[in-house]
Automatic annotation (TrEMBL):
<feature type="transmembrane region" description="Helical">
    <location>
        <begin position="20"/>
        <end position="38"/>
    </location>
</feature>
<keyword id="KW-0812">Transmembrane</keyword>
<protein>
    <recommendedName>
        <fullName>O-antigen ligase domain-containing protein</fullName>
    </recommendedName>
</protein>
<feature type="compositionally biased region" description="Low complexity">
    <location>
        <begin position="465"/>
        <end position="476"/>
    </location>
</feature>
<feature type="transmembrane region" description="Helical">
    <location>
        <begin position="182"/>
        <end position="203"/>
    </location>
</feature>
<feature type="transmembrane region" description="Helical">
    <location>
        <begin position="101"/>
        <end position="119"/>
    </location>
</feature>
<keyword id="KW-0472">Membrane</keyword>
<feature type="transmembrane region" description="Helical">
    <location>
        <begin position="329"/>
        <end position="352"/>
    </location>
</feature>
<feature type="region of interest" description="Disordered">
    <location>
        <begin position="417"/>
        <end position="476"/>
    </location>
</feature>
<feature type="transmembrane region" description="Helical">
    <location>
        <begin position="45"/>
        <end position="66"/>
    </location>
</feature>
<feature type="transmembrane region" description="Helical">
    <location>
        <begin position="125"/>
        <end position="144"/>
    </location>
</feature>
<keyword id="KW-1133">Transmembrane helix</keyword>
<feature type="transmembrane region" description="Helical">
    <location>
        <begin position="372"/>
        <end position="390"/>
    </location>
</feature>
<feature type="transmembrane region" description="Helical">
    <location>
        <begin position="215"/>
        <end position="240"/>
    </location>
</feature>
Length: 476
């Protein structure tokens, strides 16, 4: 996939044309685009196309781990996966625990490592964003006839090909049928479509945004789910905040302080608390009440099984409640303990700090950093109202790996795409002085204005590695 046009924070255009690494392309196809009807059963194991591909790619990437320098967030991902494995074996026994932990490691750690290992340059990351938008557009187009007719055309075709029957979800909201497209549940399609908004926004021109953003909203809307709509609207709000605060000094610190104050007010100044407030942002009042009840009943069990968690199906609850959990962070604590959730949050925080420490002025890198940061904020908030299951679990891990790859990616050298100066031509062909080459022009420092155009199409950009020491003002 070739890179698309990116708009810098100053309005300048930057283009980097690079292809997406083949392992990343195949992983996104098998994880996000192949319907569940193409799954196979091997004895007691139910293997989806994504799991089959991840098993194969594991043997490819393990020898390549030594090619990258492991950072603190990489080690946290490894420790988290090991902690989850111990928790599953402790809770479910050796046989069932190994099976569950194996699938979890495939969808969480291996997906992360594929992005971390193969995405090396900022142009490759841009090509990933372009492909993600193409998949969002495909799901949005498929969602429209589903929302109108209620028929699951993709799953019907898959069932006709393989004979595998998957019982699709059917429900009406807001006068439309909730669409699934290529996913197993409407909420999964909605989370996927809405999550791409920030990355697409910051790598598009104003003209491209005019049709790309409505297409993303189309896929989000036909999921008819509160969590994706919350993620979409939150990203629009954060994009607006980013735009109007560009001249504010230390805006990240000030905004974070404001969010912290808001959290304290909601948590201790109201009778609902922060989680209760989030549970109110739903399309169904019954759903709001039920999610609050889930948190209220399950958090006591989490405190009793603080370190390694317990079987979520056994949490203490009234008889009218089922075992399903609609809060991803609560579900993580229930399955593998509070330290497991802490490691996930710490990983994201360390990646964000690593991105903030890179004093790059290359427009495309700056925009990708903004898009990734706002996207992760929206996903963290949405995770409090929905469980990341099915295809969204590896998607969330891929987004974490995308941020880690961005923190270590190579960016084109400033001015590397400029033409070489023409050699000096003497005024006369005849001279008694020996011909000397022109003296090189020495630059006293970095240019005062960032490069506003990347390498020409077909040219190979010259990359520089992330600097070990940085100078200049801290990015805001």
């Amino acid at each position: 996939m070739s890179g698309t046009t990116a708009l810098s924070s100053t309005g300048a255009i930057s283009q980097v044309h690079e292809k997406m690494p083949l392992p990343v392309l195949l992983m996104l196809i098998f994880v996000l685009m192949v319907p569940i009807e193409f799954s196979v059963s091997l004895g007691p194991l139910f293997l989806t196309p994504s799991k089959l591909f991840l098993v194969l790619i594991t043997f490819v990437i393990l020898p390549k781990i030594s090619d990258i320098k492991l950072r603190s967030y990489d080690w946290l991902m490894l420790i988290h996966s090991g902690w989850a494995t111990i928790s599953f074996v402790r809770t479910y026994g050796m046989a069932d625990g190994i099976e569950r932990s194996g699938f979890y490691v495939l969808e969480f750690l291996i997906v992360y490592l594929v992005a971390r290992i193969y995405l090396r340059t900022v142009g490759q990351i841009l090509s990933v964003v372009g492909f993600l938008f193409a998949m969002v557009a495909l799901n949005a187009i498929l969602a429209v006839p589903e929302g109108i007719t209620g028929r699951r055309y993709v799953h019907e075709i898959g069932r006709a090909i393989t004979g595998f029957y998957y019982n699709p979800f059917h429900e009406q909201r807001m006068g439309i049928w909730r669409s699934m497209a290529l996913f197993e549940h409407p909420i999964l399609m909605g989370v996927f479509c809405s999550s791409a908004l920030s990355l697409v926004w910051f790598t598009s021109t104003p003209q491209q945004r005019m049709w790309r953003v409505p297409l993303i909203f189309l896929g989000t809307f036909f999921a008819a789910s509160s969590a994706p709509l919350l993620a979409f609207m939150l990203q629009l709000y954060l994009i607006g905040i980013e735009r109007i605060t560009r001249k504010v000094k230390a805006r990240v610190a000030k905004f974070s302080a404001g969010v912290a104050v808001l959290w304290v007010v909601l948590q201790y100044g109201t009778n609902r608390g922060f989680i209760g407030f989030l549970s109110l942002i739903v399309l169904n009042s019954h759903t709001a009440y039920y999610r609050r009840a889930q948190w209220r009943e399950a958090i006591d069990d989490v405190q009793r099984h603080f370190f390694f968690g317990f079987d979520p199906a056994t949490f203490t609850r009234p008889r009218w409640m089922i075992s399903s959990i609609d809060n991803n962070w609560l579900l993580v604590m229930m399955r593998s303990g509070v330290p497991s959730l802490f490691m996930i949050f710490a990983t994201i925080l360390m990646i964000w700090l690593a991105l903030a420490k890179r004093r790059e002025d290359y427009p495309l890198f700056v925009n990708l950093r903004k898009g990734w940061g706002l996207m992760m904020i929206a996903l963290l908030v949405a995770g409090a109202t929905v469980a990341f299951f099915g295809k969204v679990q590896p998607l969330f891990s891929f987004y974490i790996g995308l941020g880690a790859a961005l923190a270590n990616c190579l960016v084109p050298q400033t001015g590397s795409d400029q033409p070489e100066p023409a050699p000096a031509v003497p005024a006369s062909r005849y001279t008694r002085f020996p011909e000397k080459p022109p003296a090189p022009i020495r630059s006293r420092g970095e240019p005062t204005r960032p490069v506003t155009a990347g390498p020409a199409s077909g040219a190979t950009p010259i990359y520089r590695r992330p600097p070990t020491t940085t100078r200049g003002p801290r990015p805001t």
